[in-house]
Design brief:
The complex is a heterodimer of chains A (about 270) and B (about 500). With about 270 residues, chain A is an alpha/beta fold. In chain A, about 50% of the residues lie in helices and about 10% in strands. Chain A contains 14 helices and 8 strands. In chain A, helix 12 packs across helix 13. The termini of chain B are far apart. In chain B, the strands form 3 sheets. A 6-stranded parallel sheet of chain B has the order 1-10-7-4-2-3, with helices on both faces. Chain B has a 4-stranded mixed sheet with strand order 8-5-6-9. In chain B, helix 9 packs across helix 10. Chain B has 22 helices and 12 strands. Classes of the chains: A alpha/beta (about 270), B alpha/beta (about 500). Chains A and B meet through helix 1, helix 2, helix 3, helix 4 and helix 9 of A and helix 1, helix 15, helix 17, helix 18 and helix 19 of B.
Amino acid sequence: MRIALFATCIVDAMYPATAQATVKILERLGHQVVFPSGQACCGQMHVNSGYLKEAVPVVANHVAAFDTDDYDAAVAPSGSCVASVKHQHPMVARSCGDAALEARATAVGSKTYELSELLVDVLGVTDAGAQLGSYFPHRVTYHPSCHGMRLLKLGDRQSRLLTTVQGIDLAELPEADQCCGFGGTFSMKNADVSSAMLADKTANIAVTGASLCTGGDASCLMHIGGGLSRQGSTVKTLHLAEILASTMAEPASVTGEVRVTTGKATR
Amino acid sequence: MSTFLGMPALPVYGTGNLHAAESFPKAAHRELGNAQLRANLGHATHTIRDKRLQVVSELPDWEQLRDAGSAIKESVMARLPELLEQFEANFTARGGVIHWARDADEANQVVAGLIRDTGETEVVKVKSMATQEIGLNEYLEEQGIAAYETDLAELIVQLDHDKPSHILVPAIHKNRSQVRDIFLREMEGVDPELTDEPARLAAAARAHLRRKFLTAKVAVSGANFALADSGTLAVVESEGNGRMCLTLPETLITVMGVEKLLPTWQDLEVFMQLLPRSSTGERMNPYTSLWTGVTEGDGPRNVHLVLLDNGRSAALADEMGRSALHCIRCSACMNVCPVYERTGGHAYGSTYPGPIGAILSPLMTGIQAEENSSLPYASSLCGACYDACPVKINIPDILVHLRSVDVDSKRGTKKIPTQMDVGMKAASWALSSGKRLGLLEKGLPLGRLAAGPDKKITKLPGIAAGWTQSRDIPAPPAQSFRDWWAKEKDGRK
């Protein structure tokens, strides 16, 4: 397949390794990856903050970048950005009365997948260790992000992939389905409540004894990682794509001290 | 909507206890400081939501029930005037009297007038959100009429001169030793040796309430449902105190929002499954009282109903927001809301707290009313409320819609744009072109410089300062993905 990568603005600017890992995974499965260079952002920040007028050019840009027949499916390593492309883009187009844009946005949305969704539903990956060579010998806990879980209904696709990574010691996160408190501009407009939610999330992570917290959304991981860093915790965050791309020959690079375990997959 | 001369000024916005007096972030900051409150709330919401999940999972047709509930409510909203007229005709034909109230003041005046006509100065009350919304107790007190709450939790809140913090469990923010202290301080004739054992507390409340039930000649109630095809009202409750109020007094005055209507008796079946499971996590609620007008020799002889608008027509006029009126006040959304769980109900400033309150209050008062414009932002949009709602109100989408109404209502009215306005405009420019974003990303090494040797940014200015209150930002990478791709994959430098 020819797969278009939507890197998302946060991954593009802050976490290039996540996008590189996504490319590695897809190429390892024998697919061709293209990167539509006109892409920038899904506009979720504008929509969720109520700035619909300002969201229009951002949405129009995304639609223009991905509205081609040059690829079979588009993928993003982010549930919330994919949810925005699928659910918010047609709504933004409607809000400015642009029926043509709405139709194109809907078409782009129907070809766009979150990474685990593409891997499991379209590319038939059921065993990451066997099919991708994924190897990650660390104790890891997993945070399922709200938009992937509730808007995209990803179910256990992400955690199922993680359990099949060789060497991983996956520790269940208490209250995993609770929001980490990021919520885009919510973390600034309601910083106190957001911080209280984050404190509970990081406390739950600490209970697992994991040295890494993973998930499918860079923004949530930036939030959780930012909290852990401020608290002086040694626990790091790492995107799920980087764990899946990690192999014995080419292990994922994790900055700082990480506890290496030798255990096999526990679940 | 077309307008014509002489047409009433619609929509009519709600008055009373729907207004936040201070912004949500400010109120939340204060409530977050109360460790006892957070502990009580966390414990209670976890208990209720676990119970709800368990009983909901027992029903194989739960999703179809939610769809049915949503569809019935949608049809009610689509033909509300017609159903209200049908209900009025049936209610009146069976000996009841209907009073229409546009806002809180009108409703309060009607109820006080009805009580005055009986010559009584004491009334018993069965828990009612609507009377809480219009501030009836306070109004009656000014008129020299004492109103006694009979729902145990409402009684606790009333004795403590406090406000409810939850629509189903109004005293959710108090633990039992606090309740004992309130009883000892405020309850007439209470045993001074009272302990905080639940059974002892319940017995004290029972003795107190029994005296009121046996003497009161007037009761004020709310209603959960009204059935248009028969003119019947319904109250569901857990303690039986409601049934005492509904059957013993001579005069019964019910105050109900116009949105509580259901077309037929048959529709009640759906909601009698949805409501108890969603609210208390019970398969069936203990007391369901239904009454249809006046029956000679049985129950109240004077039956009144005040039909309340108070901003409901304004909510109905909002095409995106009107489904908020589907709410059956089960409180499932607040029990799963991470924001509510940490701030409690008082932070929302309205009778309706939590996710549903964050949309309902500004819809009923207008987004520009007092501090209500801050309510739609009191959510991380995690979506737990939408998943839990038994009538499928898409609360996150309505929150986003109301945020856009707020932003648009402020456009052009402010002399100086806010930092957020400026930031959003700039971001819109930068993020609507791959080229522009790429150029900006060339500045990433500057961010690395700002991060310093420990590779993190710990302080940001302006509106972003909220982030660095409790979170670091990692040093940005030396190279964006875009640049890496251009170099490695496109073979360009």
